[in-house]
Amino acid sequence: MMDFDFLPAELHRKRSDQRLWTRYARLVAMMVLAMGAWAYAHFSWVGSADRQLAQLERQRLQIRIHRASLEMLTAEREELLAKKTLCGRLEDEASVQVVLAELSRAIPTTVAPTELYYSRTALEPTGPEPGSPPKAPVSTQPSDQDGLPTLRLVGIATDGTQISECAAGLAGSRMLTDVSMRSLGDRSASGRRGSGFEVTSRVLAESGGRR
Prior knowledge:
This protein has helices spanning 9-90, 96-106, 160-171, and strands at 112-119, 150-157, 176-189, 192-203. By secondary structure, the chain is an alpha+beta fold.
């Protein structure tokens, strides 16, 4: 069977061109859709990344705030430790310099100290010297604190009144407790002669303990 085409060749060419343009249009539409999908995915990813960066920046800001708070707390802790150390030092035993300053304030100028003993352990009681009268306590303040340093002062004075004033001055000190005095009889020291005496006491902490 034979087919005869009576249509002109120009019509066939137009139809071929039309089909070709239709393919091109579909391809362009597909490319536009693909680019649109890619752009949507890209901008969605960029938006998500921006949100994550903003969240990360907020976290970094919180970290800086917490770090500043930590540094402030650390400084406060060091200050408290320094104050605690200082308070501990104030509760320590009195230094020799402080004891000497307290003695210079409490001892009258009319009394001449000849010997001074400062021991962080209790001193053994000394017996009366030959020919000296027995021990005569003047001011005794009992204390229940054990382990306190012991102070013993030996000196000479013109008469017993000055000795009593010296013992009373030491007994009135906030740093001394358990103050007692005994007479040692006539003695001489550095070309000076007078009534010898000995005062023993316990030394409290620099901050002033319970007497």
